[in-house]
C-alpha cells in the first residue's frame, strides 16, 4: 500500500522485491502497526517528503533473506523494525550518543519504504528482538507507540503524579509501565470521551477526565501525545514547580502564546525526537518484564485507508494493526 501523493488515499500495487544491499535483511511481514506519524505523512503534514513511499514503521516479521555481511541474525528469526532506519554514525550527534538527532538519519516508512506490505527490507543493525510473550499483532505497537512512549516517559524524570494528555496507542502502553513502577496516572482525553476515560481507568489510571477538567492533584510531570498545541500551556499550568512537560509527537498544531507565569518556577518544556537503539533495547527488556496489555484492532493490508480513517476520526481505543 503506497502513499503516492500527500493528501491522497494509499494505492494498492504489486512490486518486485528489491535486491538486498550490504547489511540488509528481507522480512516477511507478520504485522505492521498504524501510527499517527503515518497519518501525518499521508495527510502531508511532514516536511521533506520525496516521491512515493510505503508507510509503516511498527513492523514485526521473520527474516526471509540475509544480505551481504549480515551477522548475528538467523533465517526465520522474528524481529521488529522501528522508526529509526539508519544513522550515519559519524556526525556530532552520533558521536555524542544522540543518534536520534543524526543529521543524515533515514526513517522507516518515511524516507525509506516501510511495512504496509507483504515484505520489507531493513538494516540488520536497526532490528530489535521482541519478547516471546507477545504475538505479532500485540507486538507491533511496541515498535513505535511503545518506544516513543518510553522515551517520552523517561524524559519526564521522577514523578509520583503523572499526567497523560491524549489516551491513544502510546499512552495506553506507557500508562501501564508507569502504574507498574508505582506512579499515579491521571489521563486527559477529549472532553466528553467517556469510552477513552473508562479505557484509561481499566489500565490503572486513578483519575480520567476531559482536558477541560482539573485533576484532583497537582502533577509532577505531564506527557502530551495528542497533536494539539493548545494542550501545552494547559499542561504547564497543571504541573508543580520544577515539573516537566514532554511533547511526544513528531507533529503538533501551533502552540498559542501563553503567560510566562505558567513556565516560571523552573518548569521545563521539552520535545522528543525519534529514538535510539538503546531506547529500543531498554524498552523491550521492560516489556519482557511487565506483561503489557496491547489493545489492538486488526485490519487486512488492503484496508489500510480504513485503518488510517479510524485513527484520524478518533474511533480507536488502542492501536490499529495491518495484517498481510
TrEMBL record:
<dbReference type="Pfam" id="PF08240">
    <property type="entry name" value="ADH_N"/>
</dbReference>
<dbReference type="InterPro" id="IPR014187">
    <property type="entry name" value="ADH_Zn_typ-2"/>
</dbReference>
<dbReference type="InterPro" id="IPR002328">
    <property type="entry name" value="ADH_Zn_CS"/>
</dbReference>
<keyword id="KW-0862">Zinc</keyword>
<dbReference type="GO" id="GO:0004022">
    <property type="term" value="F:alcohol dehydrogenase (NAD+) activity"/>
</dbReference>
<dbReference type="GO" id="GO:0008270">
    <property type="term" value="F:zinc ion binding"/>
</dbReference>
<feature type="domain" description="Alcohol dehydrogenase-like N-terminal">
    <location>
        <begin position="21"/>
        <end position="132"/>
    </location>
</feature>
<keyword id="KW-0560">Oxidoreductase</keyword>
<dbReference type="InterPro" id="IPR036291">
    <property type="entry name" value="NAD(P)-bd_dom_sf"/>
</dbReference>
<dbReference type="InterPro" id="IPR011032">
    <property type="entry name" value="GroES-like_sf"/>
</dbReference>
<protein>
    <submittedName>
        <fullName>Alcohol dehydrogenase</fullName>
    </submittedName>
</protein>
<dbReference type="InterPro" id="IPR013154">
    <property type="entry name" value="ADH-like_N"/>
</dbReference>
<comment type="similarity">
    <text>Belongs to the zinc-containing alcohol dehydrogenase family.</text>
</comment>
<dbReference type="GO" id="GO:0005737">
    <property type="term" value="C:cytoplasm"/>
</dbReference>
<keyword id="KW-0479">Metal-binding</keyword>
